[in-house]
Batch of 3 targets.
Target 1
Amino acid sequence: MVHGESFVIPTRGNSDIKNITDQVQKIVSNSKIMEGIVNISAVGSTASISTIEYEPALVEDMQDQLEKFISHTAPTRHGSTWGDENGFSHIRATFMGPSITIPVSDARPILGTWQQIIVIDHDNRPRERRVFVQVIGE
């Protein structure tokens, strides 16, 4: 069986990190799938999906490291071509990836005690981010 749903979450941009674990769990529950996998995917080329221990200090550490990895002030050909100055956001999103897949058992994503599912909006402006969740199994 395959079940898919999406949801929209508002973000502030600039590598804003949002905990989406509850939304994903709700979709897994809605699917009635007991055993399988869930794929969580950010729709768009300037956002990423990952996991983290979602607590304020680590969220800030992650944002600091993303800025060191590719600064929002780094000039890019993309920014020069399109004038949107968000080339850095595309690069961050490409390296982090748009999606993750997590096992499902007993109708729940298998996550560690301190592990939450997150969306990271790397763009340079606030957005309404769409996340697509697909559950596959039986």
Target 2
Amino acid sequence: MGLDDKDLKIIRELKRNSREPIREIAKKTGLRPSTVHKRLLQLVERKVIQGFTVRLDSKEVGENFVVFMLVKGGTSYQLENKVLQDGHVREVFGITGEYDLLLKMRFKDVEEFNDFIISFRKSQRGIENTLTMIATINLKEEL
């Protein structure tokens, strides 16, 4: 079952502010509050909405050092669970091209990143190559 225009309007408002009261979402979307409530429940039940979250100021919470790392490890290479569960590792994608994986990570500073990368390289078997890129400015980021 696909999303219709009403669902998309509700989702758009939730992306702006997931704490927005149902009555406010109803006003902004032109829908009745009961319709918004019912649709929200359905979107959660269908797992279209998988959770409600907050957007943090990375600098304030000490996570403004952003690193992207490309990993080459052959087609059978898999990251150890320890890496996937590490709090610094925010996103991991399988990708096409010269590299196999793309990791997005957040750290307090370069020293914290250095500790991570040394441990990562020691613990991960099968890595052929990595390429790390440090973000210098955040122009746009969506949750």
Target 3
Amino acid sequence: MIKEFKAFLMKGNVLDLAVAVIMATYFGHIINSLVNDILMPVVGKMIGGVDFAQLKYVIQDASEAVMEGDVVITDAIGEVAIYYGTFINHIITFVIVALCIFMIVRAYNKSQKPKEEEAPAPAGPSEIDLLKEIRDSLKQ
């Protein structure tokens, strides 16, 4: 069983897949950093100093626990908000990753040799022509 497992791991496809997963993971981190640390601050500055990561719509403000003596009347409730700025960051990250993947696939496809199409077989005589020849040879 151990030998089979070792043979499975040593196959080229498994190693290629492992390398691809690791590369994709860190490629994603690089793109996230590009969007969050470089692009979004510039975009935020251009539209008036807005930090997209902090954009949110507050549904309910945070409340603190109210106590009377040793009895808790209401519990502390954290802020309830929709963080649409983070959502915008993720959309931009997705678009950049999709563009990068498109460029990689496009470059790969161009690097491949175009497949030569097989030339169609030369057209021979049709069945009707063959039957006519047989008829003519029988007449003689």
